[in-house]
Each structure stands twice: as structure tokens, then as C-alpha cells.
Design brief:
This protein has 302 residues and is mainly alpha-helical. It is built from 15 helices and no strands.
Length: 302
């Protein structure tokens, strides 16, 4: 089942790849699609996932998911600060940032939905919320090196966080949106599987995969991001007694390739953009093999 769902996603990525190679998609179209996903589709995914009657057990599970998500990302930061010692600061920033932050929105939410249903997206949304808080605080500072870049306004207005806050309020108050509103929200949320995959495919079509595989530190990033961190996270959560959908949802998020945000931040703060595109593309490609294996292990022991 897991392999089947991953194959479906990568067929969509393949279509995006073909669209890029045939010039059916270009940088401008890809950028606009990305904005639609980030600012419209993602909040709708969050709100749609939280459209359920309040349940104390689910709220507790949400809290556990938040703790697991925080531990996974903070743990990754500590490990990366120990491992990565590239003398080139521009490269080192990209390598550490890319290894810490997974593509837990674009890649994980569609898989969590396909494998776990709405509960998977419910927990996955909390992982994305924690991810956004850390990436727009620590991540922003780590890539820019400037504390002035930190902004409470940017954090509060982040679409991923806004979507979770709105969804959480609706969940806590057991508010069911009227059908005239919930239906468009659901339709937009359904775009979260095909559109991000097309975007990823397009970026793969524009990158030089061969070059990145000549970089020894890129191999470290690939191994850490796709194998070491997700397996370590899975093992620790299991030993701490985490089971069921929470275990699987957090494992899916931690097993995802390097976040596309890595390139966005690298571009903005004059880091190694070429390296960022390379590690995003290479880890996305290699995750075709690693994600089904790791997620299968998680579903078996959950």
C-alpha cells in the first residue's frame, strides 16, 4: 500500500518533469503555482483536517505530536551542528538547513492523507505548524546570520501557522463550517496532492542531478536527511511508547526530502543557491527508494 501511494505521487512528479522539459511549465508558472499552494491550498488543508467535533483524546494526541515534532527538529539541529564542518560558510549553511528541514508540507501531507486518511493530515498539520515556527525563527537566523530578520509579524502571518490556528479554534469549539464554505475549502485542500508534485517535478527537470552527486558533503546530507534522522526519530518515538497514526505521521514527515524552502532562503540570503537546488533535487529523487521502506517499517511496528 505504502509503495503504491508513493509510486502514484512520483508519477505526478514525472508529469511535472515532462512539463518542465517540454516548456509547458516555466519558472513564472511554477512560482505562481507555489504561491497558490503556500497561501491558499495549505491553509485549506489544515482547516479541512481540523473539521471534526472536539475530542479530548485527539487534543492530547495533538499535543504529543507537537512534542514529537519539536524533538525531531531540535534533535536534527543539534546533530547537524556537530556533523557539518564545511569551511565554506555559504555551503555549510545550506547543508545544515537542508538536513534539518524536511519537505513536510509538499511531500508529507499528501502521503499522510493517502495512508492514514484525515487523521494523518490532522497530525501532519501539527508537524507543519511546529516546522513553520522553527524555520521562521531558528532557520531564518541560521541562513541569514542576522537577528534583525526575525519578525513576530512574519511568524504570525505565516499561512501554515494561520491555517492551524484557525483549524484548531474550530476544532476546540466544535464549529462545523456551513457547506457553502466547507465545500470550497475541501476542493482547494484536494489540490494539495497533484499541484505540489507537479512543482517538484518541474524543479527536477531544471536541475543538474549529476553535478550534486560529485559532492561528498551532498552524500552526507542525503544519508542524514533520508535515512539516519527518520530512522533515529522512529526508534526513539517507538522506545518512548509512541504508536499508531502519530508514529507513522511523524515518521513520514521526518523521512521527506530536503525542503524546497532551502532554495528560497538560499536565494534571499546569498547562500549557495546551486547547492541548495542540487540537494533538494537529489534527495527528492533518492526518496523514491527510501521513503517507502522507512514508512513501511513504521506502519509495521505502529
Amino acid at each position: 500500500m505504502v509503495s503504491g501511494q508513493v509510486i502514484i505521487l512520483f508519477i505526478l512528479i514525472g508529469i511535472g518533469f515532462i512539463c518542465g522539459k517540454t516548456k509547458f511549465l516555466n519558472d513564472n508558472a511554477s512560482s505562481k503555482l507555489t504561491d497558490i499552494v503556500l497561501y491558499i491550498v495549505t491553509p485549506c488543508v489544515m482547516i479541512n483536517a481540523f473539521q471534526r467535533k472536539f475530542n479530548a483524546a485527539m487534543l492530547l494526541n495533538l499535543g504529543i505530536t507537537a512534542l514529537c515534532s519539536t524533538a525531531i527538529i531540535i534533535g536534527s539541529i543539534i546533530i547537524c551542528n556537530i556533523v557539518f564542518r564545511d569551511k565554506n560558510t555559504s555551503r555549510n549553511k545550506v547543508l545544515k538547513f537542508g538536513t534539518v528541514f524536511s519537505n513536510c508540507g509538499f511531500m508529507s501531507l499528501p502521503l499522510q492523507s493517502a495512508i492514514l486518511g484525515t487523521d494523518g493530515v490532522f497530525y501532519g498539520s501539527m508537524f507543519v505548524a511546529v516546522f513553520n515556527i522553527i524555520i521562521w525563527t531558528y532557520g531564518l537566523y541560521a541562513m541569514s546570520g542576522n537577528k534583525k530578520e526575525l519578525s513576530a509579524k512574519k511568524l504570525a502571518l505565516n499561512p501554515g501557522i494561520l491555517g492551524v490556528v484557525i483549524g484548531l479554534i474550530l476544532f476546540l469549539l466544535s464549529i462545523t463550517l456551513p457547506k457553502v464554505i466547507s465545500t470550497p475549502v475541501e476542493y482547494l485542500a484536494n489540490l494539495n496532492t497533484p499541484v505540489p508534485m507537479l512543482i517538484i517535478g518541474y524543479h527536477l527537470s531544471q536541475s543538474n542531478i549529476k553535478e550534486i552527486f560529485k559532492d561528498k558533503w551532498a552524500y552526507v546530507t542525503i544519508g542524514m536527511r533520508l535515512i539516519f534522522i527518520p530512522l533515529l526519530s522512529l526508534a526513539i518515538m517507538y522506545l518512548c511508547g509512541i504508536r499508531g497514526d502519530i508514529l507513522v505521521a511523524c515518521t513520514i514527515a521526518s523521512a521527506a526530502p530536503v525542503a524546497a524552502t532551502t532554495t528560497m532562503f538560499a536565494t534571499k540570503f546569498n547562500a549557495d543557491v546551486k547547492l541548495s537546488v542540487g540537494v533538494v533535487s537529489a534527495t527528492t529523487l533518492v526518496s523514491i527508494i527510501t521513503m517507502p521502506i522507512i514508512i513501511s517499517v513504521a506502519t509495521m511496528i505502529a
